[in-house]
Design goal:
Elements lengths: L5 E2 L4 H15 L10 H20 L4 H29 L3 H6 L3 E2 L12 E9 L5 E9 L1 E9 L10 E5 L3 E4 L7 E10 L4 E3 L3 E4 L2
Antiparallel strand pairs: 1-2, 3-4, 4-7, 5-6, 5-8, 8-9, 8-10
Helix pairs in contact: 1-2, 2-3
Length: 203
């Protein structure tokens, strides 16, 4: 019988969602009281990786290279945590799933998958306005549209609005100032996933 091990999808479009799910599920998880340093490194890297993904959308070769470097680091850190989970769980499928990882040789129906969001558009409107709009979302029951006026880090405080719609217009923003935007999607089982971070200078 093939041993049960912790696995995660390698596709770039799913990587930030996977990282966030693992970070959420591993935090204060009694089944994994002594996680490896890779978990803390992953928590620090995550916001930086989201910014790198956003910057790479312009196809600038330097930005793309930075994104690829961080993606490789993120995948290696995830693998270290997955190996720890596999060892600690001793092949217990349920314990592995509580960590936020998937298990090998198992398929998931769309209804059982955590929410995901692949594309965030930020459209600038009249002076002081910006509209956030997410696309290609799955398994979502609510949206938290958020922004910050500082480059995101692990300590960033986001300002946001909850809604049942995948689109929201922020008003009263400061003209000629740079903002960072994201959308948190909430799934049917209250699982959360994060869109890529997109930055804009407000008109």
């Amino acid at each position: 019988m093939k041993p049960i091990i912790a696995k995660f999808p390698k596709r770039e479009s799913e990587l930030t969602t996977t990282i966030q799910r693992v970070l959420n599920n591993m935090e204060n998880n009694p089944a994994y009281p002594d996680p490896p340093p890779a978990l803390a490194e992953l928590r620090k890297l995550h916001p930086e990786f989201q910014v790198a993904l956003a910057n790479a959308k312009g196809r600038d070769i330097t930005m793309v290279s930075i994104k690829n470097d961080q993606k490789a680091i993120a995948q290696n850190l995830l693998q270290e945590v997955a190996d720890y989970v596999t060892l600690k769980s001793k092949g217990d499928r349920t314990l592995i799933l509580t960590s936020g990882f998937y298990v090998n040789s198992e398929t998931y129906s769309r209804s059982n998958q955590p929410p995901s969001v692949e594309i965030l558009e930020v459209e600038l409107g009249p002076s002081g306005e910006a509209t956030t709009r997410v696309k290609n979302t799955t398994g979502v029951k609510a949206y938290l549209h958020q922004y910050t006026k500082e480059q995101p880090s692990i300590h960033t405080e986001w300002i946001g609005v909850g809604t049942s719609l995948g689109e929201h217009t922020f008003e009263g923003l400061i003209s000629d100032k740079r903002y960072w935007f994201r959308v948190v999607v909430v799934g049917t089982n209250d699982q959360r996933a994060f869109s890529p971070v997109v930055t804009r200078v407000i008109q």
